[in-house]
Amino acid sequence: MNLDVGAPVPQQKLTAVTAAAIKACDRLDGVTDGVINDPRQCRFDPHVLVCGWRGAPTDGSCLAGQEADAVQQIWRGARGTHGEFLWYGLEPGASFAGLANSSSATPPVALPFAITLDHWRLWIKQDPSFDWHTLTTVSFETGFRQSQAKFHAVIGSDDPDLSRFRAYGGKMITYHGWADQLIFPRGSIDYFDRVIAANGGLKRVQQFDRLFMVPGMNHCRGGAGAVNFGQSGVVPVSLDPEHDAVLALQRWVEKGVAPEKLIATTDQPLATHAAENPTQPAAFTRPLCPYPEEAHYKGTGSPTDAASFSCVDADHD
Q: What residues does 309 pair with on adjacent strands?
């Protein structure tokens, strides 16, 4: 972003982009709840917010053309010098504040994610004084590939061969928030797809491992969606295997009952989330479905009640 625009995009503009993406793609699942159910289906183009375009904001949050380009690249994910895929990007509807933060000064000062900067300074470059402003598209790709080659054996955690885990009778529930602002959720889907390929197919994998994607959830917890299901750091609304992922895992291990869904509830909205999602209801429940299924509204019943949704196979590109 800094390379393309020459300065950080002000948070006011990035917040407006996030809100516009949610507004454009919210109803793709049949209900308006301030959440994008599956960002892979969202085709929102940030260029509609370019200053001067019909419908663009007039309050100072409209985008310059280069700013819209930068947002689109962040959503698309990292690419090499010839456009080749490196990794996934931030999803539409997720906050930019985690990875592309900036100060409120005039002009704003970029405040990138500290762990990312430290990885470049101390691991890749092994130079505490390294200036990230000097990165170019070429040097970024070079450093990216160097990091994979040098450190995967140390910190890599994506071996898809779980045959020994399965043989020992292990069970695993994995979850990832679609609005994760720090770790890109499609990486979890990428890994799970490779687990499926390496372990005999989906039906066999679901005998010991299930992935639950959580619409509207930030990094690990919190967010505008139904994000409370007893995961780490969260107290479930009900201590039973339907509402508590830990108890669901315990039942799976001890009684052999795999979780067909988890019932998640909304947190009380924090001020920041309420500001970005003004249409968010005070509370609602949703089923979380095992990948590749997703929750879809049945067309009848209250859209705030999980019973009004069913788990169906996802439809996306």
A: 297
